[in-house]
Design brief:
Layout lengths: L2 E3 H8 L3 H9 L6 E3 L1 E5 H10 L3 E2 L7 E2 L12
Helix pairs in contact: 1-2
Length: 76
């Protein structure tokens, strides 16, 4: 198992650290804190698999790629 920093996770996901923090805050990505926030590699894999077909531009208002709001968002 490998642990990624927020910056490393952002690079893996081809996004920025602000988006990764937003995904953590909205409970789309589960992280842990060991001095700094860390994200296990398996959690990034799970997130990518479960997010197929979703528009996560606004993690608090996830939509299907066709624009309809999803009702089965991950619960906190």
């Amino acid at each position: 198992m490998e642990l990624y920093t927020v910056k490393e996770a952002a690079t893996k996901l081809k996004t920025n650290p602000h988006m990764v923090y937003a995904l953590i805050k909205s409970k789309h990505i589960v992280a842990l804190k060991l001095g700094r926030i860390k994200i296990p590699d398996y959690e990034l894999e799970r997130f990518v698999k479960e997010s197929q077909g979703m528009d996560l531009t606004d993690p608090e208002n996830v939509k299907d790629l066709d624009g309809s709001r999803l009702s089965n968002q991950r619960e906190p």
